[in-house]
Description:
There is one protein chain. The chain is an alpha+beta fold. The chain is built from eleven helices and ten strands. The strands form two sheets. It has a seven-stranded mixed β-sheet with strand order 1-5-6-10-9-8-7, with helices on both faces. A three-stranded antiparallel β-sheet has the order 2-4-3. A hairpin with a 2-residue loop joins strand 7 and strand 8. The radius of gyration is 43 Å and the shape is rod-shaped. The chain starts with a helix and ends with a helix. The chain binds 3,4-dihydroxyphenylalanine (DAH). 3,4-dihydroxyphenylalanine binds next to strand 9 and strand 10.
Amino acid sequence: MLDKLKEIEKTALESLASVRDQSALDNWRVGNLGRSSALMSVFSELGKLSKEERPVVGQAANRVKIALESALAQRAEAVRAAALAKSLEEEQLDVTLPGRAIQHGRLHPSTQQLRHVLTILAEMGFQVYSSREVETDEMNFQLLNFPPHHPAREMQDSFYVQAGERGDNPILLRTHTSPGQIRAMREFASAQPQHPPPIRIALPGMCFRYEQITARSEIQFNQVEGLVVGEEITFADLKGTLSDFARRMFGQTVRTRFRASYFPFTEPSAEMDVECFVCGGRGCPVCKLSGWLEILGCGMVHPVVLQNGGYNPRRYSGYAFGMGPERQLMLRYRIDDIRYFWGNDLRFLEQF
Ligand code: DAH
């Protein structure tokens, strides 16, 4: 019996030496330590041995079992290490390769610029007021002092949504953010009609005009309108605020100038220019050799407009201004075609 055990141990260890992978290991374990293995049959035959032989053979069988188990564990470890070394060798990973860049979404350049303008205005005490994009002729024009057939309407060719039976008050897509002035004044005034509160708001959003689409004109664009109404608001407030805005937007040393202009809803009216930031005022193609860039229209709110908004023009005065974020971007980055903004070309959009 003892010789048989020796033989079992020897053959088992010999065959274990040639085991190279996990499935061969499993087979070896079943064959040499499993229930029907030669070793296990020795255990089941212990009962047939004499009293003297039994403990000797039992101990020897146990020793062989432990020896095989520990050899198996060692072999398993060696097989595992070899498999790992093999996979490291075969599936080499070059950790020095750059990773794959994560695509970040981002805001449209117009939205970025719009928010930039609003951030500056917010720092200067302006609240954002949202007004609708679909308007009536009355709000978009008449209450802003453009009567029907007024020639100033011609600069703002309009998309009429519903004409016909509405007579002189058709529905249209707003051609500028200025109708928000009337809506805001009326809302503020309705809270206290006898003594309407002062207003300092910025009105951002999309405007629409029935234009031939070219490099210089689009049928949709953003504007940011400003409106300040209160007692004793003067043209000095307008100039001071807008000059400060220009410095915050274009740099502390930028110079500004105001040129007389005309808008039906402001009197007097002006346009503000900033010193050309491309050439520093010396004259270049961007400023068309003038040294100046026009960036907004402005003026003192016309008494008729104050009245239409519910603010008594004998008591209240105010100023307003309107500017275009796309125009600012075009000047800033020398974008020579406004159609890029809504052309959805990633090569353009990804630059911002
Ligand atoms: N609404 C004008 C436009 O679209 C811009 C404008 C000019 C707005 C003067 C104003 C202003 O509030 O005072 O051309």
